[in-house]
User: Fold this.
Amino acid sequence: MHIVKYRKIFYIISAILMVGSIGAITFWGLNPGIDFKGGAALEIEYTKNIPTQDVVQASLTPLNFDASVRPIGNNGYLIKTKSITDSERQAMEDVLSKEDGFSVKQFSSIGPILGAEAMRKSLVSIFIVLICIVLFITFAFRHVSEPVASWKYGLITVFALSHDVLVPAGVFAFLGHFQGVEIDTLFVTALLVVLGFSVHDTIVVFDRVRENLRISKDERDKKDFEQIVGESINQTFVRSINTSLTTLLALVVLFIFGGEATRMFSLALLIGITVGTYSSVFLGSPLLVTVQKYQDRKSK
Assistant:
């Protein structure tokens, strides 16, 4: 009940997070990886003489490939460049192989056209998911018309989900600007997982609201809507927190001990699921009360 009572505080927190995220995306932008802008990625490893990152970077500078070098593990590097030909790739490997124990673990290349197509499809997939969620919730709550119409449940859910997507995107815009972190198709996959996880939590609370509205109507106890929403949040609060905590613990382990390829993926999930749990409990459900009170003032 205190969550609903002090909902303006939680609105302010969400507003700060959203404005900060929008600002980061606007001023710095997201740093697309080769999945979206095209380019080549070469993963190498040294088993004997391991050069420093600066030495590897300096050895590639004369080639003018716009290469970026990032350490992987204790004895490897991930090198990302613009799109290169086979002969240019061979020249790069020749430069890198001057140290003993050199080996190529993986090489991948994506053209700019395929990268742009992947970006378009990623954006379309997120948009389609949001539309489907609105339609599903509108259908699922079609028998709930008072005091808040079913389609408004859908719009509130989408607003909460937008909050859940914006915050991880804002964090990655910050990391991209200061740490060079790139987004790829795994990042989009993480956002889609966050949308599914968050909407699941939101529907659990909304479904409890629907059930308590029915019980209140049958028993004619004349509880006001704010009290019903508060009781619904209290009834589902422990479940939501416990479910999220077990998932977050697994993600923390993956982030710390997992490979480099999944580190940013797990970080995006960590941020998104944390924010998604917050929005389901502290943002989405209280917004039902705000909408209901606005309707009452408007009708009067």
In short: The chain has ten helices and four strands.
